[in-house]
């Protein structure tokens, strides 16, 4: 929508100050970690790995940020879409192994893009059915949402086991995405750089849609006061189905990426990352895209630094980060909606 | 407003239940085209329920609602809004995470804000221009109320349903509001306003309906009610002179 011609000029309008401090947190964590890690090249490797991991976590979390943060739907089944995405990606990459192993960069990227698109499409479709069957009947009731979506998670996980088998599956990255680039004495894995790029694109897309488009305005307004939005002439039912489907699609995209990141996984791949995703959403502040990104980067960086410097407390580190953030800002880094 | 002219809005024996509570017991309300109709009554009389039932935010369980001759009883809220009915709820209903600009853009359902209309809004509510890019949640109570009204008038509407616009506002702001509603009336829009402030009701009301226990117990001209203290006492429990 274009700015009205008579909109007042920016000079006469007081702008709200930008809250920069949370944006600096990943950099602060990185700087603090440098003396703990010791060697700067190792630190650089860990930092890039942490950022890439953070971006993949952001991609899988962004869907839940929309569904839980914005729509207030406690979707414990989000992990099912991640698992489904990973397995659909597997189903594209394995039959197309000649493309995966080809020396042609174009074929490698084509099969990678195909896997991502297939993961997104299938999870979108399943997300639509999931919303109709399990979410809409319990809209507004958190307890029932937890029960229904946990049930949905179990059903989808079992269906995955029935279709793809219960044993650990593995697949290879397309040839072009394997290996590392050397940056001084630091090895930067190619796939992590690609994951970083995809995560940045997802963030930019979500941020632009939510803040610069009419659909984004409707979503943000509808979350706060759905009734008022309807009284202004907007039908919210289709809008919220769309948000849920997009959330599932983002989980599918992240699922393919997470599967390729791990390369070996089982049907529990989604359930295993579910807790981490909720930690990221809570750190970020419900419904905030930027908060979700920072939360994911913090989790990614901390996991890598702590895993290297103090492996014994690696499992606890993400909980600790959440605890510290909530002690500092009880409603998360950027609060968008009141609950 | 000729009585013979077909009313813009007509409620015929409308009943509304909210859960186990039967709130409206057959509301008969006529809002003539043009001018302002005031809906008065004590707290709990059913005024807000009537407004919300018109907007289909609560569904009428019996009776009929006609707008410009069209039966809208079964329609949903978005359809009713798109017929040209603007709604200012008692709670203001502003989107606090959105800026003033975003609130107004969203209210312009045609997709763009008419510059002349925006000029009119800025003239009525200069604070909207001052805080154009500020988050609506940071506005004061009076400014939020202004934004809520500005949203309803950012596009031409056939009917404005306004629920207690002066609730909690300072007297100086209320005096300003009277001028704004008079200007709005001059543009030809019809207003149905729920109001507890009798000074404002008298200043801008043309016709009046008084509610009690979910029914309309009086309908007539506002001026007649304003001049009849005995009637005020009987219908409302106190006279307007106490609210000058």
Our Rg estimate of chain A from Cα atoms comes to 21 Å
Largest inter-chain contact set: A-B, 31 and 37 residues
Spans of at least 5 consecutive residues with low confidence of chain A = 1-6
Most strands sheet of chain A? 2 strands, antiparallel
The fraction of residues in strands of chain A falls at: under 5%
State the shape of chain A: globular
Reported for the largest beta sheet of chain B, the result is: 6 strands, mixed
Query: Quaternary state, please?
Result: heterodimer
> How is the largest sheet of chain B built, in terms of strand order?
6-7-8-3-9-10
Spatially, the strands of the biggest sheet of chain A line up as 1-4
User: What low-confidence regions of chain B span 5 or more consecutive residues with pLDDT below 50?
Assistant: none
The backbone outline of chain B, from C-alpha atoms, is globular
Instruction: Tell me the series of helices and strands of chain B, N- to C-terminal.
Output: EEEHEEHEHHHHEHEHEEHH
Number of strands of chain B: 10
How many runs of DSSP E, i.e. beta strands of chain A?
Answer: 4
Number of distinct helices of chain A? 13
- The gyration radius over C-alpha positions of chain B equals 17 Å
Q: Given the structure, what is the number of helices of chain B?
A: 10
